[in-house]
Amino acid sequence: MFKYEEKVLKPQKLTDYLFGLGLKASQISYLFKNKDVKINGERYSQDTLLESGNLVTFFLREEISKKYSIVYEDDNIFIVNKFAGIEVVGDNSLEQQLNAYAVHRLDRNTKGLLILAKNNESKQELLNAFKKNNIIKKYLCEVVGATNYKNTCIKCYLFKDAKLSRVYIYDQPKPHSQEIKTIFTTLKSSPQTSVIECTLLTGKTHQIRAQLAHLGHAILGDGKYGKTEDNKKFKEGTQKLHCYYLKLTNLTDKLNYLNNKEFILYPEWFAIKN
């Protein structure tokens, strides 16, 4: 049997909390049927509303399958390595599994470093830091074709179609479009594929994926903006895009101890390629 015991960071229903940890409906039903879930040492029903600071304890026959690993943790934040196949927010999301607040996003199949806040004060400070571009994010990706970017800042315009859950990139402004900027640096290139470092100067939905596809170099494994024939050719089913670098700057108040702290995590495929 595996014992799970964690403190709740934000108010929510007990059932939602268990689903957020990655438990299946059958596992949750089994726990309540056997009265095997405790809050602060007492048994409660599945409709119980958890409060911040509650200690939830339960036992399972198998380990919970997690789609993340913790890179750094203190009283205020998590830095995690997000795996592919999990949303950052929403049902059964990373936010729910960690019982924390997401302050930025990675696409479902984008991997890498992600920051989550453990309390409202940290959440607000981090959100303000992102708005002021005080948090530097860099990505690594492998794309189709040869490139020769040398710390090249490319500006385009992005239009988001919420109904289709995709964005469109233009070289000139269009109605309702937003300016985007990304710095690209080619780290390795061949006629077949290239490895690129991408530094976000703006952070819009699908920015890197859509911008590179617009430039003629779609990310390998990208089913939305790439070409099916390329993904089949290179046998890539998951997009090779990884947030590998975070640097926190100009933080104040509660998080000032994190100023100039860097987090670096290379993807496995990058080590192989280099």
Can you lay out the helices and strands and say which pair or pack?
Layout: E1 2-7, E2 12-13, H1 14-20, H2 25-33, E3 37-39, E4 42-43, E5 49-50, E6 55-60, E7 68-73, E8 77-82, H3 94-98, E9 101-102, E10 111-117, H4 120-131, E11 135-144, E12 152-161, E13 166-170, E14 178-189, E15 193-200, H5 207-214, H6 228-233, E16 241-248, E17 261-264, H7 268-273
Parallel strand pairs: 10-16
Antiparallel strand pairs: 1-6, 2-5, 3-4, 3-6, 7-8, 8-10, 9-10, 11-15, 11-16, 12-13, 12-14, 14-15, 16-17
Q: How would you explain this protein's 3D organization?
A:
The structure is a single chain. The chain has 274 residues and is of the alpha+beta class. Among the domains are: 1-62, Structural Genomics Hypothetical 15.5 Kd Protein In mrcA-pckA Intergenic Region, Chain A, CATH 3.10.290; 136-243, Pseudouridine synthase. It has seven helices and 17 strands. A hairpin with a 3-residue loop joins β7 and β8.
Largest sheet entry: 11 strands, mixed
Enter the CATH topology name of the domain at 136-243: Pseudouridine synthase
**CATH homology superfamily of the domain at 136-243:** Pseudouridine synthase
Number of helices: 7
In CATH, the architecture of the domain at 136-243 is 2-Layer Sandwich
Round the mean pLDDT to the nearest integer and report it: 90
Q: Uncertain regions: pLDDT < 50 for 5+ in a row? A: none
Alpha carbon gyration radius: 21 Å
What is the number of strand segments? 17
Terminal CA distance reads: 42 Å
Structural class call reads: alpha+beta
Helix percentage: 10-25%
In sequence order, what are the helices and strands, one letter per element?
EEHHEEEEEEHEEHEEEEEHHEEH
Shape: globular
Proportion of strand residues: 35-45%
What would CATH call the class of the domain at 136-243? Answer: Alpha Beta
